[in-house]
Amino acid sequence: EKKKKQEDDKKKDYDKKKKDDDKKKKDTDKKKKDDDKKKKETDKKKKDEEKKKKQEADKKKDSDKKKKDDDKKKKETDKKKQDGDKKKKQDSDKKKKDEDKKKKQEADKKKKDDDKKKKDTDKKKKDDNKKKKDEDKK
User: Fold this and answer.
1) pLDDT tens-place string over residues 66-124
2) How far is CA 14 from CA 19, 20, 23, in A?
3) Per-residue pLDDT tens digits for 19-61
4) What would the DSSP string read from start to end of the chain?
């Protein structure tokens, strides 16, 4: 009977130990599963943040490129306007210069003609006076 009790106790101990080991394994498995789930969530979060960061960087890059293009366009437009204004001024200056030159030529020609007319008139007057003098002498 004593021997039987010892064997029963031994079996009880073995069963208890097995139960404890099973519980420990179950706890370890659960912890591993939880850790894996947590890691997966952390990885997803990290991936999402990187994606968001990349999108923002791309957005900024696009915005910078657009600004650069707009600046270039504005610069070209300004240059075109400046060139146009410069050409207009050159044309206007040339026209004025040509007009002034023409006016001066006309004024010079008129003066020359007037001087010639006066000279002719003076000569005619002189000739008439001489003729009258000659006639008076006769």
Assistant:
1) 999 999 999 999 999 999 999 999 999 999 999 999 999 999 999 999 999 999 999 99
2) 9, 10, 14
3) 999 999 999 999 999 999 999 999 999 999 999 999 999 999 9
4) -HHHHHHHHHHHHHHHHHHHHHHHHHHHHHHHHHHHHHHHHHHHHHHHHHHHHHHHHHHHHHHHHHHHHHHHHHHHHHHHHHHHHHHHHHHHHHHHHHHHHHHHHHHHHHHHHHHHHHHHHHHHHHHHHHHHHHHHH-
